[in-house]
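nudix hydrolase
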Amino acid sequence: MTKYAMAVVPVVGILFDKKAFNPAPNVNEVETVFDVPLEMFLKDENRREQEKEWMGDKYLLHFFDHHSGSKMYTIWAITASILIRAASVVYQRPPAFQERKPTFWNGNPDEAIDT
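Tokens:
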């Protein structure tokens, strides 16, 4: 849930044949499609954070920079949080940094990951 009460439902899949993947994203919602190693969302490399506050709730926004060829992509905010969570579940370990999620994303800031 975003601070504007928009529900975000992530969908995760396993891609066995990358060449057969032919995405058709909504151009009004998706700027580009690219892939990144999931484990990067657990590392404190190519990551920066920004402290924010909303309605008395202090939290961190995470920004991950990823270079692919000559392009640089930034994955941030709720997308980064979803990928941190996915990586934590897949690799069965917490990130190497403090998350400090806002309560409006899940109602439970800094709740331990169930593994």
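The two ends are 22 Å apart (CA to CA).
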